[in-house]
Amino acid sequence: MPSASSSRSYYGMKSVLHGSRTAADIYAELHILPSLVYRYTKKLKVKISSSQLGRPPIVPDVTKNYMKIQIIRGQLQIAKDVYRLPLEPGLSILHSSTVNALESTSFHAKLKKKKPFLTKEHTKRKLS
Known about the structure:
It is built from seven helices and no strands. The protein is mostly helical and 128 residues long.
């Protein structure tokens, strides 16, 4: 017979899974592993929507104009600020989409490449 705590978690997970939320929302809220969520979905035969399906959201023209105004006023300095700007409730966009939106509003932006910090000693060790 399962313990009382496991039966409580089972019924709690059952009620959470029957809600209309994605798996990412569930394991972020309950602080559990994604594999546990998927195990319960298979066990309970519940279909939940994946948060990564489909085409990434497109930044609307109204939002692009708002970003442009904020940049001209000087409130947003770099693409990271624009990326973190709460555009719309529930709208999450990729950093590359932000850069594309900035370029479409005639601002030049590029993705930041990670560059290794190498001193002369590091380069000597690396080459030897």
